[in-house]
């Protein structure tokens, strides 16, 4: 009996086997990392600016690259009328189902291919995918085409090394995150095309995100009365009216500083006006001005109450605006253009959080916090349907470090490789 017992100074057989497989997964990722880097470069080099949102060509390329590995790819084009109504041009979502056997969970991995336009100030071509000093530059290198690479190569490593026999992994590649996700994950979920048990969505590799802010966007149209600039009192200046309303809205940010979230990583609500359009010519009193505002909501806030309060602030400002010489009042219309609810942490997300934190600490050599983020994502669409999810993927410690949505967006390729290793290990644990 003594001869057959397990020595006290050695790990139990299962742990020893897992440790060996973790090392083998790491090695597979390292051996195929040049291929993973090339895969990402090909995806970055196909523009997916949203707007205008002509993203079907990128989905076609992605499907082509995946089918080269003998993977079956489902292409789900969103009907043209729905795409046009959302202000986009073309949109095709992809699902790849890797079924391993009965039992075990279905785990979805979601990354979005649509991006904000590059803008100005780049010192590297925004769609060049250039590699300089170990960093790849280009729009979506950090958000979130990088996780097309992270997730696919984590799955390939898992299948090559661990050869799972239970459960299923679904890869969801969608193209509507910048416009709210309703035609991306929301469309797949509402049409019954997927119902995973757990899900992970594109994020940053130094933290696992369990909650995020919500977002309300409103379009405000201020209608005045156009007039010649030589006789401005004969009209009603819509720009002056809009300025009056904007001042009232911006004053709310001082109040928002006093509203604090209890979620680590999230501070307080805030309001931003990101787009203003109006006027006819320099010598014409503006007759119409349109602006769009973005109100970030902490998880504790009620979206209906937030919207009602904003509409009341706007209405009060309109009433207090004095038109010249007792003329007619401003006409103002408010239209909701986006409501993205906050992501709440569901109790069932603990297997995801624990596995990512464990392997993240081992691979990165530092603790991986579980936090909230002031961003909003389409992960909420899974969570709203009761599917526990977290945000985790390739990237730096913060959005700012990567220049995400700014000029010279980039990813450190060492982070890409390490995040791929963490995801391969995590999938190994969840399917075993």
Outline the biggest β-sheet: 6 strands, mixed
- In helices, the fraction of residues equals 25-40%
Mean pLDDT: 93
The number of distinct helices, counting runs of at least 4 residues, comes to 12
How many strand elements? 17
Identify the strand order in the major beta sheet: 1-2-6-3-7-16
Tell me the strand percentage band.
15-25%
Radius of gyration: 25 Å
Shape: elongated
Write the element-wise H/E pattern from the N-terminal end onward. Answer: HHHEHEEEEHEHEEEEHEEEHEHEHEHEH
**End-to-end distance, in Å?**
30 Å
Structural class category: alpha/beta
Q: Which regions contain 5 or more consecutive residues with pLDDT less than 50? A: 1-9
Would you write up a description of this structure?
This protein is α/β, with parallel strands linked by helices. It has helices spanning 13-31, 33-44, 56-67, 80-85, 146-161, 185-190, 238-256, 303-320, 350-364, 379-383, 399-402, 413-430; strands spanning 74-77, 92-101, 106-112, 130-132, 135-137, 167-174, 198-201, 208-212, 214-223, 227-228, 270-278, 284-285, 288-297, 331-340, 370-373, 389-391, 410-412. Helix 2 (33-44) runs antiparallel to helix 5. The chain is elongated, with a radius of gyration of 25 Å.
Topology:
Elements: H1 13-31, H2 33-44, H3 56-67, E1 74-77, H4 80-85, E2 92-101, E3 106-112, E4 130-132, E5 135-137, H5 146-161, E6 167-174, H6 185-190, E7 198-201, E8 208-212, E9 214-223, E10 227-228, H7 238-256, E11 270-278, E12 284-285, E13 288-297, H8 303-320, E14 331-340, H9 350-364, E15 370-373, H10 379-383, E16 389-391, H11 399-402, E17 410-412, H12 413-430
Parallel strand pairs: 3-6, 3-7, 7-16, 8-15
Antiparallel strand pairs: 1-2, 2-6, 4-5, 5-17, 9-13, 9-14, 10-12, 11-13
Helix pairs in contact: 1-5, 1-12, 2-5, 5-12, 7-8, 9-12
């Amino acid at each position: 009996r003594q001869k057959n017992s397990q020595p006290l100074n050695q790990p139990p057989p299962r742990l020893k086997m897992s440790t060996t497989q973790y090392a083998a997964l790491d090695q597979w990722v390292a051996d195929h990392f040049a291929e993973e880097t090339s895969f990402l470069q090909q995806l970055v080099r196909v523009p997916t600016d949203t707007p205008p949102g002509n993203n079907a060509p990128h989905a076609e390329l992605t499907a082509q690259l995946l089918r080269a590995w003998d993977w079956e790819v489902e292409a789900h084009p969103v009907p043209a009328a729905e795409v046009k109504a959302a202000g986009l041009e073309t949109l095709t979502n992809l699902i790849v189902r890797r079924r391993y056997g009965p039992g075990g969970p279905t785990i979805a991995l979601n990354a979005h291919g649509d991006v904000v336009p590059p803008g100005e100030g780049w010192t590297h071509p925004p769609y060049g995918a250039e590699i300089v000093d170990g960093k790849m530059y280009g729009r979506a290198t950090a958000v979130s085409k990088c996780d097309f690479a992270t997730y696919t190569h984590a799955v390939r490593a898992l299948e090559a090394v661990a050869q799972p026999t239970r459960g299923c992994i679904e890869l969801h590649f969608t193209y509507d995150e910048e416009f709210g996700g309703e035609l991306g994950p929301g469309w797949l979920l509402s049409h019954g095309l997927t119902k995973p048990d757990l899900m992970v969505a594109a994020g940053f590799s130094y933290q696992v995100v369990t909650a995020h802010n919500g977002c309300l966007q409103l379009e405000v149209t201020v209608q005045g009365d156009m007039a010649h600039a030589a006789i401005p009192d004969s009209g009603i200046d819509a720009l002056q009216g809009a300025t009056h309303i904007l001042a009232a809205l911006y004053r709310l940010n001082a109040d928002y500083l006093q509203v604090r979230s209890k979620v680590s990583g999230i501070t307080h609500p805030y309001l931003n006006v990101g787009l203003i359009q109006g006027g006819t010519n320099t010598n014409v009193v503006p007759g119409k001005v349109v602006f769009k505002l973005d109100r970030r909501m902490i998880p504790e806030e009620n979206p209906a109450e937030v919207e009602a309060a904003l509409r009341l602030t706007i209405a009060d400002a309109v009433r207090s605006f004095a038109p010249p010489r007792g003329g007619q009042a401003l006409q103002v219309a408010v239209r909701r253009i986006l409501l993205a609810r906050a992501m709440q942490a569901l109790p069932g997300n603990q297997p995801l959080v624990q596995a990512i934190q464990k392997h993240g600490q081992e691979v990165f050599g530092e603790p991986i916090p579980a936090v909230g983020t002031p961003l909003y994502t389409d992960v909420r669409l899974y969570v709203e349907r009761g599917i526990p999810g977290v945000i985790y993927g390739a990237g730096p410690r913060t959005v700012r470090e990567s220049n995400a949505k700014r000029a010279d967006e980039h990813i450190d390729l060492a982070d890409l490789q390490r995040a791929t290793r963490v995801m391969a290990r995590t999938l190994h644990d969840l399917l075993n």
